[in-house]
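Comment thread on ticket #2218

A.B. wrote:
> Attaching the input chain for the structure job we discussed in standup.
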Amino acid sequence: PPLEISQRLHAHGDKALEILDQLNAGDNKELAKTLNDIRSMAYLGKYYAHKVAGATHLELARKISQGSEQARQQSVDELTRASEFWKLYMETASSAYKNPLWTNRVGHVNWEQIYGWTLEDIEIARGNK
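C.D. wrote:
> Ran it. Output below, let me know if you need it in another format.
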């Protein structure tokens, strides 16, 4: 179920961030880069956790009549948090990699463009799109 997946993603992301807060790379540049990558992936996991929950609540809002406004607001809240974590991901990853980033699977990935899409997701949940 999607909300269980969201909870698992949160748990893994939170654990990684908790451990990272206890680590210090010192003068080891390679370790610093690796820790930055791990932090980026933890933020990406948190983004997806909130996005999955937001999408789930939005679908519930669309399917039910009683409590639909509460579900819609939960969706907006989750998608707002998702957008915030995307921004953290983007900022952290941008410190080590160029934007847009070329990937073999999907070609160019433009983090700033995707950030704009995260803001559109919020407007969709609000019913503005």
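A.B. wrote:
> Thanks. Noting for the ticket: The chain has a mean pLDDT of 96.
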